[in-house]
């Protein structure tokens, strides 16, 4: 089953920063999304969102790699995903995008170009703070390859296409 969040239903979490601004717009934010988290300053809110996307997209790249390995091992994809959900490797990406991999469904929900932008910005943020996010940089190379091979307007699950 594909889990999804719909901004029409105000189910997307919001990570907000800036005390004065937050207090002025909190009620509006609660209409737009839920739950609403106050993160401190704008830097913390921005950083958290980038880090969240970095972790999610890096996880998606690793999941794609695992799917390719299970294919080579002769493990049926549905079984692999069902059993993986019972282990420490369970993840939101497994539930949201794993079924899309199995169905070869690349309809754009969160595009490769958008994922690449967030991962790139996250890596740049890490570099600016003197931290080299090596795993994320490797994942970024796969999203770059997906974009370069013409999958930029497809869902980020299209990274699966370039991991062989």
List the helices and strands and how they pair.
Blueprint: E1 14-16, H1 19-32, E2 36-38, H2 42-72, H3 77-84, H4 92-102, H5 112-128, H6 134-151, H7 159-162
Parallel strand pairs: 1-2
Q: Can you tell me about this structure?
A:
- It is a single chain.
- The protein is mainly alpha-helical and 164 residues long.
- The chain has helices at residues 19-32, 42-72, 77-84, 92-102, 112-128, 134-151, 159-162; strands spanning 14-16, 36-38.
Put the structure in a nutshell.
With 164 residues, the chain is mainly α.
Record keyword descriptors for this entry.
164 residues, mainly alpha, two-stranded parallel ribbon, 7 helices, 2 strands, 4% strand, disordered N terminus
Helix content: 55-70%
Content of β-strand: under 5%
Largest sheet: 2 strands, parallel
Low-confidence stretches: 1-7
State the helix count.
7
């Amino acid at each position: 089953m594909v889990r999804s969040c719909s901004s029409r239903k105000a189910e997307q979490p919001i990570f907000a920063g800036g005390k004065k601004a937050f207090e002025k717009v909190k009620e509006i934010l609660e209409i737009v999304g839920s739950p609403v988290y106050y993160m401190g300053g704008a830097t913390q809110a921005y950083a958290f969102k980038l880090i969240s996307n970095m972790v999610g997209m890096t996880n998606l790249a690793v999941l794609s790699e695992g799917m390719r390995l299970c294919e080579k091992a002769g493990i049926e994809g549905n079984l692999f995903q069902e059993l993986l959900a019972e282990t420490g490797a369970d993840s939101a990406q497994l539930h949201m995008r794993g079924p899309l991999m199995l169905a070869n469904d690349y309809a754009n929900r969160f595009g490769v170009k958008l994922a690449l932008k967030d991962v790139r910005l996250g890596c740049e943020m890490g570099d600016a703070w003197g931290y080299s996010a090596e795993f994320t940089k490797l994942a970024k190379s796969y999203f770059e390859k997906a974009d370069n091979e013409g999958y930029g307007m497809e869902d980020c699950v299209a990274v699966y296409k370039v991991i062989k």
